[in-house]
Amino acid sequence: MIKQHPEDDVYSHYQVKQAVCELSGVVPIANDMCTNTCLTFTGPYAELDHCPRCGEDRWDAKKSSPHKKLQALWRHPDQAKKMQWRQEYTNKIIDELKTTDGIPEVYEDVLHGKQYLDACQSGKIKDGDAVLMFSINSAQLYESKQSNCWIYIWVVFDHVPDNRYKKKYVLPGGIIPSPKNPRI
Predict the structure, then answer these.
(1) Using only C-alpha atoms, what is the Rg of the chain?
(2) Contact 159, 83 (CB under 8 A)
(3) Torsion angle, alpha carbons of 12, 13, 14, 18, to 10
(4) Res. 181 pLDDT band, cuts 50 70 90
(5) For residue 173, how far is the Cα from the chain centroid?
(6) How far apart are CA 65 and CA 19, in angstroms?
(7) For residue 134, is pLDDT > 70?
(8) Residue 9: predicted pLDDT
(9) Under a CB-based contact definition with an 8 Å cutoff, are residues 2 and 10 in contact?
(10) How many CB atoms lie within 10 A of CB 103?
């Protein structure tokens, strides 16, 4: 976008959130949830440390973030080696582009995309950086209602494609509930 429209301002994530709040009147409401998503710790449950339904500890978004989970993926040597796949594969693609006039012979993955490769070659994505995909979708929990919550996740693109979407490598982001509080 910056290359095609250098005269335009590019706003930070914070600035966009503020503008959405101002223009729409919609403001984020953050609440801790049970790790098993039994309930949200609001109303009569606001002061509880454990879920009254399943007994699990309260999940605190401030203590558990994609950033911390991402760091954990680098702690174990075997796992850290697996996290280098994207970097190694990207270097292989860039070397291939030198012999094919800048056009990949095969587009096998998002890593073959022009914007991604341009970001790597310009230094915006560096060796050792993690590459995440933000994915959000709505969920219809009741047959008689339209979508009443949104679920979002982070997919770690540093893993081989066969492993990216496995449960242990997909980082939960959060749940954006409907306007009404969850019920037990």
Answers:
(1) 21
(2) yes
(3) 100
(4) very low
(5) 6
(6) 24
(7) yes
(8) 76
(9) yes
(10) 10
